Structure formats: C-alpha cells, structure tokens
Amino acid sequence: MLPWSEGADLISAIRSVDDKAYRDSTWDYRNRSSHAIGQRLALGHTQAVTRLVEQATELKDQGDGTFQIEPVPDKMSVSYAVGGTPPLDMEESRKLNLAQYHEARAAYLIYRDLLFKLASGLPKPP
After folding, report:
1. Any domain includes 46
2. How far is C-alpha 88 from the chain's CA centre?
3. Per-residue pLDDT tens for 62-83?
4. What pTM was estimated for this model as a whole?
5. DSSP state of 101
6. How many domains, in total, are found in the chain?
7. Is 64 among the domain residues?
8. Domain range spanning residue 30?
9. In the chain, how many H helices and how many E strands?
C-alpha cells in the first residue's frame, strides 16, 4: 500500500505510457529503436532476417502415422525468420505518439501535483 492516496493514480498513469496496445500497434518501436534497429517511418523495410530464441520443440510420433509438435522442457533453440518488418505508416504513428504524449503529460501532472503536496508539508527553512 502506498503512503499517499495519489500514489495509486500516479502508478496507473505511468503504466498507461508505452502499454501493450501501443507496443503492439507500433511493433515495439520505442524498444527496438533504443536497443536494436527500429522500423522506418513511411519508407524502407528492416530486419530482413530475424533471429529468435524460443522454446525447443520436437515431433512426437502419434502411432497412427501422424506426428505432433511438442515442447522440450528446459531446452531453448534458435530459429531464423525471413521476411522483414515493413515501415510504420507516418500518419498512424503520429496519432499513436500524440496519444502517448497525452498519457505521459497526464502522468507528469499527477507527479508534479504529488510533489507539490508532499513538499508543502515539509518544514520551511529558517
């Protein structure tokens, strides 16, 4: 439990920035641009080949002439995907980022108001 009631509002507001819906809509642009090669805006494909580390699988004989893919416990494998990441639409990106700006601004205002409230309770310097 947070020591002040506005803390829950602040945490909620912070969590609304870069949420799953935004990451899905932008192909996780913010993270990829910071830590790898992000998508382009409007023109240009990236990541023609992508390396994936995922749960290892194997084919299990079902005894009737068919096989089923099943995970191998505690084992990972590397695979590669070919195809590339298309560029993000410029107008859609603008709209999504404007919405993120408003979310971040709202979180900032809650944070600012909380700081002012907490600071007003501090003793005044002599």
Report:
1. no
2. 16
3. 999 999 999 999 999 998 888 8
4. 0.65
5. H
6. 1
7. no
8. 1-36+88-126
9. 4, 2
